[in-house]
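Form 7-S
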Amino acid sequence: MKRIFLTLAVLANIVLLITFGLGWQIGDTTLLNGRDPEVNQRIGNHLLVGLGALTSATMVHALILTYFMGTGRWIEETSQAYRLSGEWYRQNQRTKYGILPGIFISFLGLVVTGAMGAVADPATAVSLEKTLGIHDSTLHFGAAVCTWIVNLIVNMTQYFAITKNSTIVEGVLAEVRRIRIEKGLPVD
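Output:
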């Protein structure tokens, strides 16, 4: 799981960075009263890749949540079947619930960044500039930078959580193996 997660997380973060680069290259959105076809094409590319980045980053977080739900259920059922200590399951649950706030914050950041991008779009009538005193594109840029940094940190904590959970799973497997050998049951 560590290798799969690492590959997907790296790819998702690369797509986030590509989106960032495309946004950086948009240029002056006020040219020709917002009707410059080249600028509008760059906005469209940034938007589409941004939606892909949002989807890929969200899918990585969903994969991690699914992994912890599955291993948690397996540890719970295996612990009951072999009358193992409940400590394995409690460790798994602590690890799983430890990553949930990061998943929530990352997802919230992705959505806020997208919303700020919609506000920064010159084709929209909505603006927060008068309310907050900060240009809409600056808000979007700040949200994008913060979201990427948070997502990267959360991905690193998720990687460490997977490593910790792998140790828990290996401990359960070792204990089951020991019990099966003691009872003369087949192993492997």
